[in-house]
Amino acid sequence: MNETVKRYFDAFNAGDVEGMLACLSDDVAHHVNEGQIRVGKEKFAEFCAHMNRCYKENLTDMVIFEAEGGTRAAAEFIVNGTYLQTDEGLPEAHGQTYRLPAGSFFNLQDGKITRVTTFYNLADWVKQVSNG
């Protein structure tokens, strides 16, 4: 198991954005599900601030995979969340809960994450928060 990726997810579950940032390279490429690529820690921190306003999430059933001598990793997990504040272009928030399978893929160099790509089924999430 990749220790950097484990620290990253432990920090996520603790709500520790600074701890997550400490795992990233300065020029990290963050590939967001259904979104644009954000480059750099500052953009990643802005994304985290937005997410923390709109969502409260905890990841469970975590399995971390490592390949290519520690330069690549992946994780599969369940996102257990509460939709706190309406996110632009998405259904209205009123405290709905959701449970969503997801996965993340990583590139690593010198013990830092240089790329994070996360995937989940947005249509499934929309259905769950739309009470459908």
Automatic annotation (TrEMBL):
Domain SnoaL-like: 5-116
Pfam families for this protein: SnoaL_2
InterPro entries per UniProt: CHP02096, NTF2-like_dom_sf, SnoaL-like
Gene3D superfamilies associated with the record: 3.10.450.50
Protein's UniProt name: Isopropylmalate/homocitrate/citramalate synthase
